[in-house]
């Protein structure tokens, strides 16, 4: 089978499309014929060799955590799913023709494989950081870097929970943020004052790692009211870096509920074939994403 792999840490050019042995489902796992794989910032952070304790790496390594596809093999002890079922979930080395997933859910009706591949890690992260930052219904949450996958999920989940969201993004994504229910403003010079004019901020999330931790603490008045998923230096300023996933099965169940109720939709901005995984990483690292990027198999 074809799989994207890297044998050394480095830039996008270390990614290679290789012939690899097919993986097999162990106890409590499924193997899927991958139709699409989500492209997440954690993918290129791992490829660069950044120290992420939740994702230890042995070289050579595959790439990718999220995928959607058709069940091809059912591991021992797995009930309620059969070969041929359409599922989306999280596993390992998902930029491949076949991958093993350890957390999954049946795809909601009407969702394409490309769309489904963009949800697992994104929704788990969004649910986790909303919980960890402690924002409650009736309060206001500031989201820095709100137009990407996690931001898109945070805005919609917060809105469903009665939380007001102020989102920052580039000028081209202001209407997109508003379409998701956010009060939108641009980043760049003067952004702190623009946010202040929009009202009190009770909690804040840094989703882009653009060097705004000090300002987020200033706006909330307390580093404990700020969470970052993108700035590894955040703890130096008393801000929690959230990088360890909670329950992915629970997150997938909530994603299915939200999608089925029409409360969550994350658009796919661009799709790439397996052979163009390096280009997907380049674009992901450049930011300015509206929704999700996915690998199509």
Automatic annotation (TrEMBL):
This is NADP-dependent oxidoreductase. It comes from the Bacteria. It holds the Pfam family ADH_zinc_N_2. It is found in: Cytoplasm. Residues 10-295 form the Enoyl reductase (ER) domain. The lineage of its organism: Bacteria, Bacillati, Actinomycetota, Actinomycetes, Kitasatosporales. CDD domains: MDR_like_2 (cd05289). Homotetramer. Its main location: cytoplasm. Keywords: Cytoplasm, NADP, RNA-binding. The keyword Magnesium does not apply.
């Amino acid at each position: 089978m074809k799989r994207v792999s890297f044998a050394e840490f480095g830039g996008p050019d270390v990614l290679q499309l290789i012939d690899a042995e097919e993986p097999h489902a162990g106890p409590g796992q499924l193997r899927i014929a991958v139709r699409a794989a989500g492209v997440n910032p954690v993918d290129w952070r791992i490829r660069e060799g950044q120290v992420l304790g939740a994702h230890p790496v042995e070289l050579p390594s595959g790439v990718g955590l999220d995928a959607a596809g058709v069940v091809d093999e059912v591991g021992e002890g797995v009930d309620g799913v059969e070969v041929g079922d359409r599922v989306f979930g999280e596993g390992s080395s998902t930029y491949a023709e076949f991958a093993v997933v350890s957390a999954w859910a049946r795809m909601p009706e009407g969702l394409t494989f490309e769309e489904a591949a963009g949800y697992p890690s994104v929704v788990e992260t969004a649910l986790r950081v909303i919980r960890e930052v402690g924002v409650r219904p009736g309060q206001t949450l500031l989201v820095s870097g709100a137009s990407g996958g996690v931001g898109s999920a945070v805005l919609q989940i917060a809105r469903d929970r009665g939380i007001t969201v102020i989102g920052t993004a580039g000028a081209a994504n202001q209407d997109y943020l508003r379409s998701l229910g956010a009060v939108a403003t641009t980043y760049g010079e003067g952004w702190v004052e623009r946010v202040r004019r929009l009202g009190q901020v009770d909690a804040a999330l840094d989703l882009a790692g653009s060097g705004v931790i000090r300002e987020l603490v200033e706006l909330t008045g307390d580093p404990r009211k700020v969470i970052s998923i993108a700035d590894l230096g955040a703890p130096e300023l008393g801000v929690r870096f959230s990088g360890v996933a909670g329950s992915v099965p629970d997150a997938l169940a909530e994603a299915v509920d939200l999608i089925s109720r029409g409360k969550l939709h994350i658009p796919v901005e661009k799709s790439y074939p397996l052979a163009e995984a390096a280009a997907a990483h380049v674009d992901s690292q450049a930011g300015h994403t509206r929704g999700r990027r996915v690998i199509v198999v």
